[in-house]
Amino acid sequence: MPYTVLTIDLNDRKISKKGIKKNIQRKFLGGKGIAAYLLFNLTPALTDPLGEENVLILATGPLTGTFFPQNRSCIVSKSPLTHTFCDSYIGGHIGPEIRFAGYDFIVVKGRSDDLSHIQIQDDEVEIKSAQNLKGKGSIETEKNIKKNNKDFKVLCIGPAGEKLVRFASISTDYFRHAGRGGLGAVMGAKNLKAISILGTGGVKIIDEQFFKETERLHKSIRDNPANQARRTLGTVRSVVTSSKNNTLPTRNFRYGTFEKVENISAEKMNKHFWKKRKACFVCPTNCSALGILSSGKRKGTILEGGDYENVGMLGSNLEIDNIDEIIYMNYLCDNLGLDTISTGNIIGFLMECTERNIQNTPVKIKFGDSDKAIDIIQHISNREDFGDALAEGLKNLLQKFPKEAEDFAIQVKGLELPAWEVRSAIGMGLAYATSDRGGCHRRSFPISSEISGKEFDGHRLERFSSEYKAALVKQQQDISSVHYSLIVCGFCTGLIEKNDFLNLTNMATGFDFEDKEFWGVGERIWNLIRLYNVREGFGRAEDTLPNRFFKDPLPSGVGEGNVLKKEDFVYMLDQYYDLRGWDNNGVPTKNKVKNLELEEFMVKIKRNR
Amino acid sequence: MTTSEKFINSKSNLQCMSNAERDTQRKYIKIDYVKCTGCRTCEMICAITHGSTAPSHSRIKVDSFFPGIDIPSLCKHCIDPPCFKCSFGAMTMENGVVRIDKEKCVGCGVCAQNCPIDAIKIIKSKAIKCDLCGKCVEMCPTNALFFSETSEEAKLTRTDKDEVMKEILGVGGL
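Predict the joint structure of the above. Result:
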């Protein structure tokens, strides 16, 4: 069945439906792949991410809205933070709802004159005024929209998105966010406060064997002993392990180990805060939880989530070990519509600037000062006073700083790094440097293989060695591109056999993919996005890391004294380009482009960004 | 082993219970609201078991309320069912299980209007409701749904979300 693309043009308020050709579906699969194809074709080179010519794409995949035991969706646009391609994933129930309403992709173009709200109920699409929601937090916005019909699923932005904060998030189900890359600002620039969707249909499945197979997967994931810690503690369980492994950013990525980590552990949160487990649509893993602070200064604070990244970036990275304060900051970021990772990273940078007495620091804050951090979060979301400069993101902020500050501004291509250290598992450095949306850990995550010393291609991996890392990173990026096109969650892919992804996709769609072609789609998608980024002016010079990782040895932990040696990084990067079939500047060669059937996307290198 | 135990213990059993098996005794599907994650696995498997892929066609519905309180609801197979006010005689009770005779049902919706907990839907001009097949109990990943054989009277009122909220969060009315 051809995918259905619903296009809503906010300029002329025209609404149209179009199918996607079968051969394009086969080449790019769905989700990330098809959305990349759409973004490439719908936007001209050097599009202003906050201009009306940029498009916002809501994407689902062939497994979204089915009984496959993982269900996510993704939002794709050109990022106002990195100026690269950006795909930001979101859980909850919104993705399946898009498909129940009869669509696979929703493209929003143009810009509305007034703050608006797109309401979709199966075939009926309406652009409504959202003036009454102006300035409201994402929680109140969603509550307000659900007043009339609680069954609607809502995507919305908080004040940060309206104010075009370059790392604003898009939220759904109150506490779930497409956090990374500032796509909330793209929505804000379109004057689009919310999209609400209600669908009464179902996703057509071609082969009924699909139901038996997905039922088997449900049971195996639910009952798998390896999954029980995630089901009871969520991703926060990694905080203590990560600190032990010397990979938990502490004090603006200076240390990889936090000596007070026990105070911010998952066990502590379970005991103190969480009241019930939560899960995305038909997911047996329930890695999320709902909690309330029943006493103390932040009494009454409610949060769903509990995520490693939030605890790392708003906790150890800021030297804050008071879990109540972390929970409150997390809640504030969620409600105001800010990416917790970027926010925590930027505050960490300011803390280090303060400590070093760096000139032009717009606001002074000491490590561990959560009251001031909360004040900064509020200023950023409203672009108030010093918040205006911070709202531009770490890379743009650097323009106002002396050169020395660049070394400890922990970002790649403008995307502030998440809570994983590089110097104690150096393949992660290559993963960050080559990720398609800037400093991101979700495209390739070599850390766990590096630390466990996993066998790869017949060789044992070693965490401080540069050997075999390029091949590992490439392989993971290609595989994740397939996963993110289906769209499945990155958390439990290890609990599902590789063949199951292939077979279930065939059963759901009626395709007759074989192994090689199916997984080969991942490499094609990765290259298509690379061509997009090349078109936008990116190349080797941008595939790099902050100097801290090359210059400042880790002061403690298993990686004590270690840096990522520049020559090791260059070795990995050269090998990576070679394996990718890219030239020395990181541009896909003609031959590679031809082999992947991407000729129509071949672009000349432009350096005029 | 009782039927319900068989259900809970034999998670690998792909088949639904046969009519004869489930009619041997009156059972209730009970709900542990603290354990419910709001994943709606029950909705999907219910729809699939009854021939659809749309959760809107499910006989069980999970209502979610801010800030994340999830309340599944389904037919309670009342002792004196208000849905029996059917002019076409489509509602029947066999061994305590309330059923709808598909042949007799004209989809007028009177039964649905009379159900105090909205456990009956009209889909494609036919009334549908829980037939106690137990598939949702089998697939619930957290055992939030479970069989109980206690013969206590089913409450004929909608579960109060504030009560559940209070139980879980210690505060209601959010």
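Strands of chain B lie at 28-31, 61-65, 69-73, 91-94, 97-100, 121-123, 126-128, 145-148.
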